[in-house]
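hey can u run this one w/ zinc ion bound, need the structure tokens asap thx
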Amino acid sequence: MSTLAPLPFETPATAQDHQVMREQLGREMRGVVSIARRCGCGRPAVVRTAPRLEDGTPFPTSLYLTLPWLTLELSRLEATGLMAELTERVQQEEGLAAAYRAAHERYLARRAELGDAEEVRHVSAGGMPTRVKCLHALAGQALAEGPGVNPIADEVLPLIDGVLPELLCRCEDAAPAPEAADSDDAEEPR
Ligand SMILES: [Zn+2]
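ok here u go:
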């Protein structure tokens, strides 16, 4: 197996990160290996997870987007029907298809660094390699790996303010749901 360059933005996950992820998701983030990308404010944006969770469940989405404002923006884009259009292009444009397949292979190789889950050995995320089914998963890969890896995410992310070239903080845009705001000591100092 060839060795990949390290993920460019990967940092350890702290206890504080686990608390922030709990607020972001409204539940415990499981299988956390590291933080693959952070928001401009330092909060986790993409979490790297183990191919298999503690209870043995295979978990193919190993670069998992947790950042609420970006999750919301991508959901808005998904609701526009953009994915059907992108899937059609992946199936028609040879160059795009090849680059998208390479992103799929990269996803599998990156996840294999953390171990094997044979049930999902050939399953990446987001619909790769032939369909566009989840922009969140594709964005997770692109933000963790940097530009030039996932061609679909590289097209979609510039449509959202503040994502490229740096992930500027827009956390104040996406206020946490009231039920998730159960801890008043978890806010980062500003
Ligand atoms: Zn932020």
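Residues 39-41, 43, 169, 171 surround zinc ion (CB under 6 Å). anyway lmk if its weird
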